Amino acid sequence: MRIRPERVAELIKREAADILENDLNDPRVSGFLSVTDVEVTPDLSFAKIYVSVMAKDAEGERVLAALEHAAPFVRRQLAPRLKLREMPEIRFVRDDSMERGARVEELLRKIAEGERIDEEDETT
Fewest CB within 10 angstroms: 28, 45, 88, 95, which? Predict the structure, then answer.
């Protein structure tokens, strides 16, 4: 019986979120962090874990670097939970779609209220 990549992705998403919240004791990974999606290759050899970090750009990059450093630990924690023959290599990728969505909502609010949109608003 072959395990479908979508099913493995959902399992990784759920378990990785739990590991990051409860088992990872790295002070660099602080603030609001959530696992938004996971993509697994068809052969189950690699998994991209998309995380949303509610932090400014520089701080967000530090959090992502800390997650990359913690990837082997997370992979070791995932292995017994997933019970796969071979555990995929994992890589963390920043997902800024929530931040972009909030930014679009803010611009739409300004337009609806007739506020002026500065050049700074347009580029961020």
Answer: 45
List of residues 6+ apart from 40 with CB closer than 8 A? 5, 6, 8, 9, 12, 46, 47, 48, 88
What Cα–Cα distance (Å) separates residue 90 from each residue in 1, 16, 45, 79, 116? 23, 10, 9, 11, 44
CA dihedral 99, 35, 93, 90 (to 10 degrees): 180
pLDDT in tens, 17-58: 999 988 888 877 766 788 999 999 999 999 999 998 877 778
- Helix, strand, or coil (residue 121): helix
Where are the domains positioned within the chain? 5-96
Q: What is the DSSP code string of 33-55?
A: EEEEEEEE-TTSSEEEEEEEEES
**What's the CATH number for 5-96?**
3.30.300.20
Tokens linked to 28: 């660099």
Task: Tell me the H-state helices in the chain.
Answer: 5-22, 57-82, 97-112, 119-123
